[in-house]
Structure formats: structure tokens, C-alpha cells
Design goal:
Length: 147
């Protein structure tokens, strides 16, 4: 299987079977985003514990396969991580999309890097970049404010 086919398979799997969909119990931070150009919507819910670990992370939303897959991938990879690590992964992801860099964090497994990298194909379609990055920007907003 070619890498491009693998990436498409990962995106379709996350879009059809999103992980962590719905409101997580006891969330204490949240943020919403909406792209009026295409109709994508996302609402990120997170629960931070006293040690600044993300003990709960989920989303609600609607939109295209890329938008849903991106939110699903984000919640799947960052749930249970601390804030600093989550911000680093988010920065690396956004840089990957903007600058075509690679995700190289040692704390991620090869499978996690492959999963995040599956969204890198949007670089070739500028109108789809917002679809892939909206959930990640919304996570950063949620980390800044309380519910």
C-alpha cells in the first residue's frame, strides 16, 4: 500500500468512526469554531486536572471528512497528555501544514506520527487547510479559557 493510500484510509476511518465524540465528563475548558465558508463546526471539550494533564478530551462537530478526522486524531493523540506536550504537538502539526515540515517528537509512537501526518496532504489544497487546522486552533483556545 502506498503512503498516500494509507493516509486516505486513516482519514476516512477517523471521519467515519470519530474517536472521543461528545462532551467529556466534567470538562472545565471548552471552545468553539465555525468556518462559514464551508460550514465546518467544532466544539472542543477538555478536562484539566490539578497537574495540568488533559484527563478528558472530546469534541462535537460537523463538517467534511478532513475536519472530523482532524478533531478525532487530535483527541485520540492528546488525551491523557500534559498541556506543554499538547501545545508542542499542536505547534508541530500547524507547522507541518504551513511549512511542510515533519512531525518528529520522540514522545509519539511511529503510528501516532503516521496518523497525524495523514493530514499533511491538505497542503496541496489551500482551501482545505482550515478544515484540517480548525480543531487544533480551537484546542489552543480551549486551553486559554475555562468553561
Amino acid at each position: 500500500m502506498e503512503l498516500k493510500e494509507l493516509y486516505q484510509e486513516i482519514i476516512l476511518d477517523h471521519a467515519k468512526n470519530p474517536r472521543n465524540m461528545g462532551k467529556c465528563n466534567g470538562y472545565n475548558h471548552d471552545a468553539k469554531a465555525h468556518n462559514p465558508l464551508c460550514g465546518d463546526k467544532v466544539h472542543i471539550f477538555l478536562k484539566l486536572d490539578e497537574n495540568e494533564n488533559i484527563s478528558g478530551l472530546s469534541f462535537e462537530g460537523e463538517g467534511c471528512a478532513i475536519s472530523l478526522a482532524s478533531a478525532s486524531i487530535l483527541t485520540d493523540i492528546l488525551k491523557g497528555r500534559n498541556i506543554q506536550f499538547s501545545k508542542k504537538v499542536t505547534d508541530d502539526f500547524l507547522n507541518m501544514i504551513k511549512s511542510k515540515t515533519k512531525i518528529t517528537l520522540n514522545s509519539l509512537t511511529e503510528d501516532q506520527i503516521t496518523t497525524i501526518s495523514s493530514l499533511s496532504g491538505v497542503q496541496e489544497f489551500p482551501m482545505r487547510i482550515k478544515c484540517a487546522t480548525m480543531a487544533w486552533h480551537t484546542l489552543l483556545s480551549a486551553l486559554e479559557k475555562k468553561a
